[in-house]
Design goal:
Layout lengths: L11 H10 L5 H19 L8 H16 L7 H8 L5 H7 L3 H24 L11 E3 L11 H26 L9 H24 L3 H13 L7 E3 L1 H12 L1 E4 L2 E6 L2 E7 L4 H5 L7 E7 L5 E2 L5 H8 L6 E7 L5 E7 L1 E4 L6 E6 L6 E6 L15 H14 L4 E5 L8 H8 L6 E8 L5 E5 L10 E5 L6 H11 L4 E4 L9 E7 L15 E10 L15 E2 L38 H13 L2 H16 L4 E3 L2 H15 L18 H8 L2 H15 L2 H16 L2
Parallel strand pairs: 12-13, 13-16, 16-17, 17-20
Antiparallel strand pairs: 1-21, 2-19, 3-10, 4-5, 5-6, 6-7, 6-8, 8-9, 11-12, 14-15, 14-19, 18-19
């Protein structure tokens, strides 16, 4: 959950400390100032800051170690013993702005990377013997650190043997239908070569990480002890976050990826400058980047974030890309940067056939609670959903389904406004700082955008703002909440960004320092309860294949506790759900008699048991038998979502012309409709909607 309110606080002590001790600052001193600024901000503003003591140090040590070598593939007990000397010192180092443990971890990690790179290259140079009966444990939590280099190398041998075996079996199975077949020895060699390339590429990416990238991981090990949603962001990470949050950027409209030492175009954003120019295409390799008439910068071997910063830029500025085409030709492409809108991140709607004849149901898909506060013409999800509601009302739908599945949240302001679309006015959520009284966030607009039957769909990944809306409409008895898991995610906290540049005076040569996304508040339901850890329990549950898997905030380390406060008065007279128990019983009867939902629960139990299977056989015959057993157990559940179950799906008339005017939008729309047509959960939700409509006729 993100509040858009600028955060300014005074760290005079930090500023004076820095000015007094760092008259000629260095990078080391920048890191010290960064640490001091981050800790002071967390101490002053975090909802529940822990004491910076030896217990804190232990947690940071374990968390950092888990982050850099949780799989136990790099360090031996010897390196761990060296790092253990700092287990109780990280609190003192943080307070002093020193990084001795971090520096040692980098030294040891770099040495471990060199050592293990030698291991995998040596091991993969020779064929494996797949007649030996042995196993490998892949779960780092179930293994201890290797006693010495010999034991670590032996683990790498088994691990690489497993990776090769997995690909070998896949290749053997794939060629069964082919007339010309390679021998097992030939396929084994090809599989080893595939794994060698995979690891060479991985180690190449690791080698390009800068100290500041490694430092970011260390700082996040510290911030992560406060709670899972308090994070340090490098400037480029903050920029990427803002793009996801707002759904827009200034640049050329191309997504890039690293391919060895090169940067390749992975996709072109429809409607962006690159798409309009038609010269830059998918799979083009970018060789250099130039700003306007300036000299081009060779980007070979450059980290992807650095390339992105060169390619992005202000609207109406020129960037020249020297690219190598798929046919081998080299071309210089000039692109004038512009605003790029990522329209797939925005709300959209459809009209569906209901469960009975002549019943029309509106369906609104909202992927996130996005908001763009930086631009005058920025998009806000509440405004967009209001537009979609108006489209559906113009089509005279009999009910509306709002889909918040996999919606992880976003803007608090927008969720308050959006919740108010369905009631006259009143409280939506209570927000509380650590020492303050609860601040009741109200819908103050007496207008009602939609007064008809309403269902909200959620799942285990519906979080934060999604949970606020679902909880509020559930408390008001205004909507039926339909879920596919026992509860939603369970994130009941509010974060704000603190720009660290604003926390210290001077030191312009060190800026930008980055930002901290910090948990400053908790939110509470209007009934006084909290969604923290518990989430929102759906009124009706339609189990999916992950029903028994433990997910959500309760599984996160150092998540804040569930608490409750006093309720506030609330009521609404727009529409109250009648006979929910009867509607629920009808749905339970249908799902109980549904072969699909019965199989979903069976599959959920299978996946729960399979999750604990982390040790794999390395003998070819044993592995093939193991895989055959897994495939046989999965076979009955393979095509559960392949059948078309929802028909008569249409776009609102207001959207048709816009969609048909763009071939790419048309194709994406067709894919979306195809996905919706196979959504068994939506089919049952349409049945629930029919029952809801019947109860109110």
């Amino acid at each position: 959950m993100r509040l858009h309110k600028p955060v300014f606080y005074s760290l005079v002590a930090v500023g004076l400390f820095a000015a007094a001790f760092f008259p000629n600052p260095t990078d080391q001193e920048k890191e010290a100032v960064l640490m001091q600024a981050m800790l002071k901000g967390l101490e002053q503003m975090h909802y529940d800051p822990p004491a910076i003591d030896d217990e804190f140090s232990k947690k940071v040590f374990d968390f950092y170690l888990e982050n850099i070598d949780g799989a136990k593939r790099f360090f031996t007990q010897k390196e761990i013993a060296q790092l253990e000397a700092y287990r109780l010192k990280l609190d003192d180092e943080a307070k002093a702005g020193s990084f001795e443990c971090f520096n040692l971890s980098l030294e040891l990690l770099n040495a471990a990377m060199n050592k293990t790179q030698g291991y995998y290259r040596e091991i993969l140079a020779k064929p494996f013997d797949f007649t030996v009966d042995e196993k490998v444990e892949l779960d780092g939590d179930k293994r201890t650190y290797a006693k010495n280099d010999a034991e670590l190398k032996e683990y790498w041998r088994r691990y690489l043997k497993y990776e090769t075996l997995e690909r070998l079996v896949s290749k053997l199975d794939a060629q069964e239908k082919e007339t010309e077949k390679k021998t097992a020895e030939e396929l084994e060699k090809i599989s080893r070569e595939d794994i060698l390339k995979l690891f060479d590429d991985f180690y190449d990416r690791l080698s390009k990480l800068k100290r500041e990238d490694r430092l970011s991981a260390y700082l996040n090990a510290i911030s992560g002890i406060y709670d899972p949603h308090t994070n340090y962001f490098q400037p480029i990470e903050r920029e990427n976050f803002d793009i996801r949050f707002s759904g827009r950027l200034e640049g050329i409209g191309a997504q890039l990826l690293t391919d060895g030492d090169y940067t390749k175009v992975s996709s072109i954003v429809v409607g962006g400058p690159a798409w309009k120019g038609k010269d830059l295409q998918e799979n083009d390799v970018i060789l250099s980047v130039a700003q306007g008439s300036a000299e081009p910068v060779d980007i070979k071997g450059m980290q992807i974030n650095d390339v992105v910063q060169l390619v992005r830029g202000a609207k109406d500025t020129e960037v020249r890309l020297t690219v190598k085409k798929v046919d081998g030709t080299v071309k210089v492409i000039s692109i004038i940067r512009d605003i790029v809108v990522l329209d797939e991140r925005f709300a959209k709607s459809l009209i569906l056939d209901g469960a009975s004849k002549n019943e029309k149901i509106g369906f609104i898909y909202l992927p996130s609670f996005y908001a763009d506060f930086e631009h005058r013409d920025g998009r806000f999800c509440s405004q967009d959903v209001a537009i979609e509601i108006a489209k559906l009302k113009a089509e005279k739908v009999d009910g509306i389904i709002l889909d918040l599945r996999n919606n992880t949240g976003g803007s608090l302001n927008d969720v308050v406004r959006m919740s108010g679309f369905f009631i006259e006015k009143g409280p939506i959520v209570q927000v509380k700082s650590r020492n303050g009284m609860p601040d009741v966030q109200n819908d103050v607009d007496a207008g009602v955008q939609y007064n008809g039957p309403l269902i909200v769909m959620v799942n285990s990944y519906s979080a934060s703002a999604s949970e606020i809306l679902a909880a509020a409409l559930q408390d008001y008895n205004r909507a039926i909440i339909v879920g596919s898991s026992p509860s939603t995610f369970g994130k009941g906290t509010v974060q704000r960004f603190v720009d660290l540049d604003r926390t210290i005076r001077g030191f312009e040569q060190f800026k930008p320092l980055g930002s901290v996304k910090m948990t400053m508040q908790k939110f509470y339901r209007i009934n006084g309860g909290s969604t923290q850890k518990k989430g929102v329990i759906p009124d009706i549950i339609l189990p999916d294949s992950y029903y028994y898997l433990k997910t959500g905030e309760q599984e996160e380390k150092y998540s804040l506790d569930w608490t409750e406060i006093e309720p506030v008065a609330y009521s609404q007279n727009v529409m109250k759900i009648k006979n929910l128990d009867k509607i629920k019983a009808n749905s339970e009867a249908r799902t109980k008699n549904s072969e699909v939902f019965r199989k979903m629960l069976e599959n959920a139990k299978r996946l729960e048991a399979q999750r604990e299977m982390t040790a794999y056989p390395l003998k070819l015959e044993a592995y093939r038998a193991f895989e055959k057993e897994l495939q046989a157990s999965a076979e009955p559940y393979k095509n559960l979502m392949d059948a078309v179950v929802n028909t008569g799906i249409q776009n609102p008339n207001a959207d048709v012309a816009v969609i048909n005017a763009d071939e790419s939008k048309k194709a994406r729309n067709e894919d979306w409709i195809k996905t919706v047509s196979k959504d068994i959960y939506l089919k049952e939700t349409l049945q629930i909607m029919h029952d809801l409509i019947s109860q109110h006729q």
